[in-house]
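Problem: given the chain below (124 residues), write out its structure.
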Amino acid sequence: QVQLVESGGGLVQAGGSLRLSCAASGRTFRNYAMGWFRQAPGKERDFVAGITRAGSSTYYADSVKGRFTISRDNAKNTVYLQMNSLKPEDTAAYYCAASIRIGISDSERGYDYWGQGTQVTVSS
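Solution.
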């Protein structure tokens, strides 16, 4: 029903920036709250940031607050994750997810559709 495709990952030096994009197919993008998760080697998938349907509210994990910004452009069916001041600890596969639920969930069980992931590697 909803296809999500992440892009923008890559290799960056510590202190640098990357902007991830998640493009959604179809015309139902406005119906979904969106979130970003990440999974580092040897660790579970963790919540990074979330945004409501109209982009009115956002929420961030403590580990990225002040450095990352989630936003969306519903006219383009796209959600973004601007990542600044990157640290080696941010190295992970980043996943875009869509939720039909009200509000923002920080649990992967709160999301209904997932992208394939894009790799972010931060070197020191």
